[in-house]
Amino acid sequence: MKRIFIILILGIVSCTDPNAGQLTDAQKALVDSLYNRDIDSIRTYYDSLCNYQHDSIFNIAVDSILEVRLREIEQLRSIE
């Protein structure tokens, strides 16, 4: 049973075109021109998202650090 399965798999794999995933020079040029045309607007969009998230994450981190430090101060005051 294992031999039949292996032979079947090898038969399927051997029937694929080895060049199926490769682009022609014209396709590569098209992809390159589309990328170069759209990269600036995409970069601007993701930069704005990054800045927004950075500010949010920074504020959360500061609040968290302040909370921890205030608890530490309270613990030190309770020891005295």
Describe this structure in words.
The protein is elongated. The longest helix has 55 residues, at 25-79. 85% of the residues lie in helices and 0% in strands. It has helices at residues 2-14, 25-79. The chain contains two helices and no strands. The chain is an all-alpha fold and 80 residues long. It has one domain (24-79).
Order of helices and strands: HH
Intertermini distance: 78 Å
Percent helix range = over 70%
Count of distinct structural domains: 1
Mean pLDDT: 84
Envelope shape: elongated
The major sheet is characterized as: none
Decide which structural class fits the backbone.
mainly alpha
Runs with pLDDT <50, length 5+? Answer: none
Radius of gyration: 29 Å
